[in-house]
Design a protein that fits this description.
The protein is α/β, with parallel strands linked by helices. It has one domain: Ureohydrolase domain (Arginase, Chain A, 3-Layer(aba) Sandwich). 30% of the residues lie in helices and 17% in strands. The chain has an 8-stranded parallel beta sheet, with helices on both faces. The model has no long low-confidence stretch (mean pLDDT 97).
Length: 266
């Protein structure tokens, strides 16, 4: 019997640096997963119908501070994993990845992270906010929450972020080197963090930060479908419905979610 996969919304965007709106992306992505214009079979031949469940959304009621809201996210991740479900989280901005990883690390032990993004998101501090959506991987690496971090699709990095890469031993697959990327292989379980702006804006306009020169949807799916280790969890973040066109980016998010779920069921 296959394990259930819980799809959980994380409607938080208070740590966005340029434009708010990603909080609404959680519900938009989840709605698109169930849209009748598609079905729940994956390209890899998995029927998600019997195993994909609505895990609700993280409840922030009464959480009066940013730290308390981070604790709610961490607790939700840990609870899903300890219940025995495989979690996929729909954000929200990318700041949610840090507490999600914290919670799963406590529940599951060591894993690697495969990070899809136009940006390294490893600032030690951004605009005075240590919880910024530009900083989750600095928090993750400085606290030793993952054994290996591979960031795919990078095409906008400052000198500081390049220093952070060296400091923490982060592996980057930069878009300017796309033709020479090696095949990825992992020896530990993997958590996948997928920022939709890794895709070229032509494929995913519904994000706050348009950064031309990104992956096509097909290229991203090929990398996901080649993951050679168990996937213990994932997030798909930074969908901003206010910038979307006819729900195209929401449906792209749903496609990524379904294919990640299919790979979890291997």
């Amino acid at each position: 019997m296959k394990r259930e996969i819980a799809l959980v919304g994380v409607p938080l965007d208070e740590n966005s640096s340029y434009m708010r709106g990603a909080a609404a992306g959680a519900a938009a992505a989840i709605k698109a997963v169930w849209c009748e214009s598609a079905n729940l079979w994956t390209e890899t031949g998995m029927d998600l119908g019997p195993v994909l469940v609505d895990g609700g959304a993280v409840d922030f009621a009464g959480a009066g501070s940013p730290g308390e809201r981070m604790e709610r996210i961490e607790g939700a991740a840990r609870e899903v994993a300890e219940f025995g479900r495989l979690p996929i989280f729909a954000g929200g901005d990318h700041s949610v990845t840090y507490p999600l990883v914290r919670g799963l690390r406590k529940a599951l032990g060591e894993f690697d992270i495969l990070h899809f993004d136009a940006h390294p998101d490893c600032y030690a501090l951004f605009e005075g906010n240590p919880l910024s959506h530009a900083s989750p991987f600095a928090r993750i690496m400085e606290q030793g929450l993952c054994a290996r971090l591979v960031s795919v699709g990078i095409r906008t990095a400052t000198g500081h972020q390049r220093e952070q890469r060296e400091r923490y031993g982060i592996e980057w697959l930069e878009m300017r080197h796309r033709a020479d990327w090696p095949a990825l292989s992992f020896t530990r379980p993997v958590y996948v963090s997928f920022d939709l702006d890794v895709l070229d804006p032509a494929h995913a306009p519904g994000v706050a930060h348009h950064e031309p020169g990104g992956l096509t949807t097909r290229e991203a799916l090929a990398i996901i479908q080649a993951i050679d280790a168990p996937i213990v969890g994932a997030d798909v973040v930074e969908l901003n419905p206010a910038r979307d066109r006819d729900g195209v980016t929401a449906m792209t998010a749903a496609k990524i979610i379904r294919e990640l779920a299919g790979m979890m069921l291997r």
